[in-house]
């Protein structure tokens, strides 16, 4: 990005986790590397993420009105917001009201509420329903297969979708109101993991990448942060999706050499320069 160009400013709305690579820690690094001015809004504080047998969870909802009021008083201008894990039903309502006050903001929503066929431990039915309402107003949503089922009010049926079934699923998600949807984590038993995109101005498209024989925490956050960065830099989303998949495979391969990687989560730090460089290249900077 040229030093003379205006740097887009984006609110990153996510939980802050002290141990376990995920959430706001990843978003801050990736969006900054991509040339964005990132303003964090921590939705909760955790000493370790909820997949560990012991974790802490502090909901920031009581503090958010004052936090956001300061921004209003300072007249902070945003290109938009990228939201991830939200900590309570009241919090989801609060952010819906924030977006109502700023209809000029572009909105990327990663509905971080479920995986592997189950909602997260901290998510209630009410929260899942309110997340679905938030997704309706988004420019882009990035659900995984479990989250897609919840958004559509359906039972989780696994990861295997044919191209025709995937496009139909995307059509159903688009009918909820979002302008573009990326569906993450399709598996067809061929050693590949597939992500699929469709939008009101985006034809159906898939990208496939090597399916590694292990799962890591934070991979969805890394994928979504790369795509959100590209979105706010004006990059075509099919290209953004392919880039995110490529970088995710590299990060997962790097992670397996780190001590305790299966619990801690995805390691991506040495790739930030490459991620930023690729986003700048695709943005034509």
Description:
With 285 residues, the protein is of the alpha/beta class. Helices cover 40% and strands 22% of the residues. It is built from 10 helices and 11 strands. The protein has helices spanning 23-33, 64-74, 89-101, 125-136, 145-151, 163-174, 219-232, 237-255, 261-264, 272-282, and strands spanning 9-19, 37-48, 58-59, 80-83, 106-109, 114-115, 118-119, 140-141, 180-187, 192-199, 202-210. The strands form 2 sheets. It has a 9-stranded mixed sheet with strand order 3-2-1-4-5-8-9-10-11. The protein has a two-stranded antiparallel sheet with strand order 6-7. Strand 9 (180-187) and strand 10 (192-199) form a beta hairpin. The termini are close together. 46% of the residues are buried. The model has no long low-confidence stretch (mean pLDDT 95).
Keywords:
alpha/beta, 9-stranded mixed sheet, 10 helices
Could you give the topology of this structure?
Layout: E1 9-19, H1 23-33, E2 37-48, E3 58-59, H2 64-74, E4 80-83, H3 89-101, E5 106-109, E6 114-115, E7 118-119, H4 125-136, E8 140-141, H5 145-151, H6 163-174, E9 180-187, E10 192-199, E11 202-210, H7 219-232, H8 237-255, H9 261-264, H10 272-282
Parallel strand pairs: 1-2, 1-4, 4-5, 5-8, 8-9
Antiparallel strand pairs: 2-3, 6-7, 9-10, 10-11
Helix pairs in contact: 1-7, 1-10, 3-4, 7-8, 8-10
Share in helix: 40-55%
Strand content: 15-25%
Give the helix/strand class. alpha/beta
Please give the count of helices.
Answer: 10
- Identify the overall geometry: globular
Gyration radius from CA atoms, angstroms: 18 Å
Give the averaged pLDDT, no decimals.
95
What is the N-to-C succession of helices and strands?
EHEEHEHEEEHEHHEEEHHHH
Largest sheet entry: 9 strands, mixed
In order across it, which strands form the biggest sheet?
3-2-1-4-5-8-9-10-11
Low-confidence stretches: none
The first-to-last residue Cα distance is: 4 Å
Number of strands: 11
């Amino acid at each position: 990005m040229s030093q003379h160009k205006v740097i887009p400013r984006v609110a990153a709305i996510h939980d802050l986790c002290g141990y376990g690579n995920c959430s706001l820690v990843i978003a801050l690094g990736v969006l900054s590397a991509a040339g964005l001015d990132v303003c964090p809004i921590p939705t909760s504080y955790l000493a370790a993420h909820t997949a560990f047998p012991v974790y802490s969870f502090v909901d920031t909802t009581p503090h958010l009105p004052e936090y956001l009021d300061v921004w209003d008083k300072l007249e902070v201008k945003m290109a938009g917001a990228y939201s991830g894990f939200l900590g309570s039903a009241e919090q989801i309502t609060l952010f819906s009201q924030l977006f109502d006050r700023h209809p000029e903001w572009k909105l990327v929503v990663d509905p971080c509420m479920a995986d592997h066929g189950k909602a997260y431990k901290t998510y209630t039915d009410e929260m899942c329903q309110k997340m679905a309402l938030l997704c309706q107003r988004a420019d882009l949503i990035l659900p995984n297969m479990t989250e897609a089922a919840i958004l559509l009010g359906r039972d989780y049926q696994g990861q295997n979708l044919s191209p025709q079934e995937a496009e139909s699923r995307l059509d159903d998600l688009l009918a909820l109101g979002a302008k573009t949807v990326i569906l993450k984590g399709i598996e067809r038993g061929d050693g590949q993991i597939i992500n699929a995109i469709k939008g009101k101005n985006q034809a159906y498209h898939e990208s496939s990448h090597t399916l590694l024989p292990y799962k890591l925490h934070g991979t969805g956050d890394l994928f979504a942060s790369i795509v959100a960065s590209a979105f706010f830099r004006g990059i075509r989303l099919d290209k953004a999706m392919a880039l995110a998949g490529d970088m995710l495979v590299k990060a997962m391969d790097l992670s397996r050499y780190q001590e305790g990687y299966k619990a801690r989560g995805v390691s991506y730090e040495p790739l930030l320069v490459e991620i930023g460089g690729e986003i700048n290249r695709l943005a034509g900077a």
